[in-house]
Design a protein that fits this description.
Blueprint lengths: L3 H21 L4 E6 L18 H9 L1 E7 L4 H10 L20 H7 L3 E6 L18 E5 L26 E3 L2 E2 L9 H19 L3 E6 L11 H5 L8 H16 L33 H34 L6 E6 L14 H8 L15 H6 L13 H4 E7 L8 E8 L3 H9 L3 H5 L13 H4 L11 E5 L2 E6 L2 E5 L6 E5 L15 H17 L9
Parallel strand pairs: 1-7, 1-8, 2-10, 3-4, 3-7
Antiparallel strand pairs: 2-9, 4-5, 5-6, 8-9, 11-12, 12-13, 13-14
Helix pairs in contact: 5-8
The structure holds calcium ion.
């Protein structure tokens, strides 16, 4: 039983500790940047052709991870980023932040940080689920999953399946319902981050800024001057794009061709909503190819514009003298996205967009399965799947003098690792921050040894995932995958077959059984078993 005084004594201990650590530990600022639906190979430093000089600079001055995992879609990834635990899936999408969980905002606030969250949240738009309810001093952005980039008051089109939803956009307690001419979400988020950096520098507190762009998530919206830069760049189609990115990944050292082949196209094998057939580029008619090209051009422009904004944020860190003392981390929340309108809505979708140039404010388009797949080169599948293309993300870490420059590491990481990493940086422990609450256990491990170029702390348990009928387990070099269409376990040796082309399940049934038992145990704990769709 928890008596009131144990809560109070926990709080006092937290305050005392926060006071104590400030004298002993120099806590760095933390800037965690999360774009939305960015693929594994989109950035220049991961093989992409999109112009990303500022992120490429972070990669040159920092360390890149080649095996860092998220949870394959927006909501489940964000739940794990903020809690350091597996997403609890029983209570629906808005019920993943529980009272028995500590958020990153709460933890870093207890460590004396000024905490800001900018951009997409997607974990609840009403109290007590908003960022300002869960430890963030300042929030500015879209509380739900996506909005019109030029005017967030424009509702979703009916074909999208959200019944013409309006997306709540807020600054702290205040909903914002008017946006000036020339507004563009990506720019507004970058500008707000710059303001928060300047503000925190005045107060003298260390800051935690979580900058969550909605780019390059649909709808495809970008300023015309950025789109123009990509005109004609995708004329030879998505398969050629994958080949070019794969070659560049080999040159960069992101991919070892002895271990990782360029995967072949997956075939549609069942009714799962996100299972698509990828047609050959040559088989498309001219009009379809044109439309496909335009979509990828806008997608590239959205990434480009985000990189320009990150350039402004980096400049603000330098102007305020904070660049050296700021740990910057960049990850994506899931793989490139294959979404299309639901079955039966395709004609409505095409009619809606027919006379609107792709990328304009009045349109609402998706980049589509073929480009979504290419964005994840060299891997299989895309957002929503547990093959590597669905949930392996670029991960860049820069911390001058603390994290090696120009290094590429194959150490395995996961978004649940951020909580223990940041707790260690803040010099506080989880139970202290919990203030006597009976909180869920943390599942990750601190990444600081890997950042320092030392041996990673071993994981005590296998890594497990589940989502919309997909499953996966990773145990060292071994990975089990269960596709939502095929509905059977496949086994891959990632040490020799990173792109999951040779299924070894038939050759090693004992390993499959042992790993599957771990998955079942984990599925009970994370409430996946309660959903009924696994
Ligand atoms: Ca996403």
């Amino acid at each position: 039983m928890r008596a009131p005084q144990s809560w109070r004594s926990g709080l006092l201990a937290a305050l005392a500790l926060a006071g104590a650590v400030s004298a002993q530990v120099e806590r760095p600022n933390i800037l965690l940047i999360i774009p939305d639906d960015l693929g594994y190979s989109d950035l220049g430093s991961y093989g992409g052709e999109i112009r990303t000089p500022h992120l490429d600079r972070l990669a040159q001055e920092g360390t890149r991870f080649t095996q860092f995992y998220n949870n394959a879609v927006c909501v489940t990834t964000r739940a794990s980023v903020y809690t350091g635990a597996s997403p609890r899936q029983r209570a629906g999408l808005d019920g993943m932040l529980r009272p028995n969980m500590v958020t990153l905002g709460e933890a870093l606030k207890a460590a004396g940080y000024e905490t800001s969250l900018i951009g997409k949240w997607h974990l609840g738009s009403e109290a007590p689920q908003r960022p300002i309810d869960r430890g963030f001093d300042d929030y500015y952005g879209v509380l739900s999953g996506a909005c019109n980039f030029f005017d967030p008051t424009i509702p979703d089109p009916q074909f999208y399946g959200s019944n013409g939803a309006n997306r709540p956009f807020a600054h702290n307690e205040t909903l914002i319902t008017e946006f000036p001419e020339g507004f563009y979400t990506t720019d507004a988020f970058s500008t707000h981050a710059v303001e928060r950096i300047r503000n925190a520098t005045k107060t003298g507190q260390p800051f935690f800024i979580n900058l969550c762009y909605t780019a390059p998530h649909f709808p495809l919206h970008a300023p015309r001057e950025d789109i123009a830069r990509y005109r004609g760049k995708y004329r030879d189609g998505y398969r050629k794009l994958r080949e070019r990115r794969f070659q560049r990944q080999i040159e960069l050292g992101i991919i070892d061709p002895a271990v990782t082949k360029l995967s072949t196209a997956d075939e549609k094998t069942g009714p799962f909503r996100y299972d698509y057939e990828i047609p050959r580029w040559e088989d498309l008619d001219e009009e379809t190819r044109e439309r496909e090209e335009r979509r990828m051009e806008v997608y590239a422009a959205m990434v480009d514009r985000m990189d320009q904004g990150i350039g402004r944020v980096l400049a603000a860190l330098e102007e305020t003298g904070q660049a050296e003392n700021t740990l910057i981390i960049f990850i994506s929340d899931n793989g490139g996205c294959a979404s299309l309108p639901e079955a039966g809505k395709m004609d409505e979708y095409l009619a809606f967009n027919r006379d609107i140039p792709t990328g304009d404010k009045d349109g609402y388009e998706f980049v589509g399965p073929a480009w979504g797949w290419a964005q994840n080169a060299p891997f299989r599948r895309y957002k929503g799947w547990n093959y590597e293309g669905g949930f392996c993300t670029p991960m860049i870490v820069r911390w001058p003098g603390k994290v090696a420059a120009g290094r590429i590491t194959a150490e395995v990481g996961h978004v649940v690792d951020f909580m223990p990493t940041f707790l260690e940086l803040g010099g506080i422990d989880y139970q202290t921050v919990a203030q006597g609450r009976d909180v869920v256990p943390l599942e990750g491990r601190s990444l600081l040894p890997v950042f320092a170029g030392e041996q990673a702390t071993p994981r005590t348990e296998m890594m497990c995932w589940a989502l919309m009928g997909s499953r996966a387990v990773r145990d060292g070099q071994w990975k089990l995958v269960w596709g939502a269409s095929d509905r059977r376990w496949e086994l891959y040796d990632l040490a020799t077959d990173r792109s999951e082309m040779v299924d070894l399940a038939g050759a090693d049934p004992a390993r499959v059984a042992a790993m599957a038992i771990e998955w079942t145990r984990w599925a009970e704990m994370s409430e996946v078993a309660d959903r009924g769709d696994y």
